[in-house]
Amino acid sequence: MWPAPVPWIVNRGLLAAAIALVGAPPSSGQLVDPAAHTPAAAAGPDATPGAPRVVAQRDRRALERIEQPPLGLPAVPVDPDDPPTAATIVLGRKLFLDRRLSVNGTLSCAMCHVPEQGFTVNETRTAVGFEGKTLRRNSPTMLNVAYAGPFFHDGREPQLALQPIDVLTNPDEMAMPSLGAVAARVAGLAPYDELFERAFGGPPTVWGVGRALAAYLQTLISGNSPFDRWHFGGDREAMSRPAIRGFELFTGGAGCVRCHTIAGDHALLRDGAFHDTGLGRSASLARSASRSPVQVELAPGLLVPIERSVLRSVGEIPPNDLGRYELSGDPGDRWRFKTPSLRNVALTAPYMHDGSFSTLREVVEFYRLGGHPHPEIDPMMRPLELDDGQIDDLVAFLESLTGDNIDELIRDARSEPVGNPDGAPRGDLSSSVSSH
Known about the structure:
The protein is mostly helical and about 425 residues long. It contains 16 helices and 4 strands.
């Protein structure tokens, strides 16, 4: 499919200020009892005002994942003035699965970050946005997203609570026309008045939407992989011999660990930096020079060649993706993209910022060749002298990075029903959507 327009980029400071004007509830500056804002009526007819609510087992487990990360992961970055609570997690989980948060009621967060597909999308190289528009970039996994800031492939958003707001108001994604429209939509959906009262002690706000989604996303913690049990837990039987040989290559001759780092007591397998592997530049040049038909994916695995003139008549001319440069304006940032974590990587195909590669073996082959060399390529990129057996070993190591609680995270997500439109939502936006 043809790429979508350049992702919508706004001034982060202005966005935060605008959200504050729409409505940001005050922070208490201390740990919040998840029942602190729960009215007696919501807790039941026999409830005492201010009495703690019963916390469901799934929500208690979700909090435990944040408070006690599994083997191999460091402390979860949490704002001490705004920590997740059971109430904010419940609210965030519901928002995550609610299609009614998109302007036409067709998209939810979970449709680009599918729980059963590693909290990404396995079927298409890049995500599908508003009215079927193909987006330029691959959907990053939400597994361990609490550690993944700054967010998006170009790192344009430093705060997890603001990241969802970017998506909700991006015209190519969930396409809500304004921050006020987001607040009005959520306020017009019956369950949310009570859930926001429980979580924040007030009515729905845009800032509350972001905070609640961030609280839920912070629970998607997955570690205690075979690698963790072998490397950090001392279980010599936890990894296979090929995976151990792959680890030795990863930290030795192949040099993967320079970008996918391993610390003394944990491994995020990312350096938080941005690198040019040559892939973005190569794709840009190929797109600009090509006159051949475009292979359009009409359904998973169904590719149909379509002439470029036909595509131009029904779509937009594919733009180049310049990576972090689109945010910074620094020529040195052209084609630089954020290093992703390799945790759970066996579950999160396709790979790279544009979903170029379908398998881990293809990725390793790309790095064996040294990427796509050009004068500005990252100096750490170089051809690797790896034989086929060593590539197999590296893939085996990457497959050993899958956490042991993926099924639990899927069950947790699917414990909440999907929010589907049942006619026009209350707070209909038909009068507020611009025709321009």
